[in-house]
Amino acid sequence: MEIMGRGLKQILQESPCYFHIFSKFLAYRLFGKKSPLYGSADIINVCNLHCTHCYWWLNRKENEEMTLEEWKEVIDNKFKRQHVFIITLVGGEPTLRPDVVELFIKEFPKRVCLVTNGTKPLKKYNDIYFYWISIDGTQEIHDKIRGHGAYSATRKNVMDYVQKNGSKAYKDIWITMTINSLNYHTVSDVIKEWRQYSNKIGFQFHTPFAKGDPLWMPFGPERTQVIDSIISMKNKYPDYIINPTKQLELMKKNWGGHGTTPIDCPTWAILSVDHMGREKRPCCIGSAEKDSMKPICEDCGLGCYSVLVGYGFRG
Ligand SMILES: C[S@@+](CC[C@H](N)C(=O)[O-])C[C@H]1O[C@@H](n2cnc3c(N)ncnc32)[C@H](O)[C@@H]1O
Ligand code: SF4
Ligand code: SF4
């Protein structure tokens, strides 16, 4: 038996964590108390790609990186103190800071998801929860977004990982696709292409930081059709596509907020820090700096918050 890639033995071993999560859930439901369930950390201020859709470059400033000791303080003082369950490592490109990745995995065994462009060889960590590999379409479209040669590098690294690390290695590979106006028609090809090398796939939609962003897929018949086709593919691949139908239905329209202000979006549920360990607002794609560019909540397509709205969490 497996639930979201976690076996029964593991679930039993993690019972203290579930106690905290369950207490938080009850406190929210009974008293409206809001305490973060998950964490996200931009562990690096560097990236080897410059993707056309990427929010991270929009607010990037030249700052120092944090040392390993400083990250340990953030882990203890923020993530552990608040008993977050799963931590997602992002950036920039987090695989370029293997020392910090190792530290997080040591501190949160089987509870770290590493989001990566996959262009660097994927290290085998026994205690990782899984790699999120970002795939933005079939080769031509992916490379249009991520740069020439990105797709073949990622493909090779995923193949090598799956082939060299035993029959269960594919379980560590989860695909994340951010759907936009360039790649929406490649969704079923992406599933066909990656299903044999990966455990799960999750979809989200491009979130703009400016009105008129041509990559954003407007609400309306075309977007609804893409979502309906994912919902019907879920019937064919129920264990592969992880988005709940409720979440996908939400993504057909505004579920998050008004203008750049989150309203229903449960921003409190994910404690997000930038590469200096500062808390980002309003959410994991925001920024700790006050004068930063802001994501447009009313056009948001982020998976990690909309899934919580689907489960009844609100801002
Ligand atoms: C910022 S990247 C950092 C991790 C790594 N460099 C990667 O590309 O996977 C994290 C994820 O955010 C997604 N992303 C970037 N810009 C986005 C946007 N404007 N809206 C929604 N998702 C976005 C990327 O496709 C990627 O899956
Ligand atoms: S690889 Fe990731 S962080 Fe780097 S530009 Fe692309 S989406 Fe952004
Ligand atoms: S995830 Fe961020 S951009 Fe989306 S609705 Fe929530 S606060 Fe706004």
TrEMBL record:
Pfam family name, one: Radical_SAM
CDD domains from the UniProt entry: Radical_SAM
InterPro entries: Aldolase_TIM, Radical_SAM_PqqE_MftC-like, rSAM, rSAM_sf
Protein keywords: Iron, Iron-sulfur, Metal-binding, S-adenosyl-L-methionine
Domain (Radical SAM core): residue spans on this chain: 33-239
Molecular function per GO: catalytic activity; iron-sulfur cluster binding; metal ion binding
PANTHER family reported for this sequence: PQQA PEPTIDE CYCLASE, RADICAL SAM DOMAIN PROTEIN
Annotated protein name in UniProt: Fe-S oxidoreductase
Organism expressing this protein natively: Candidatus Nitrosotenuis uzonensis
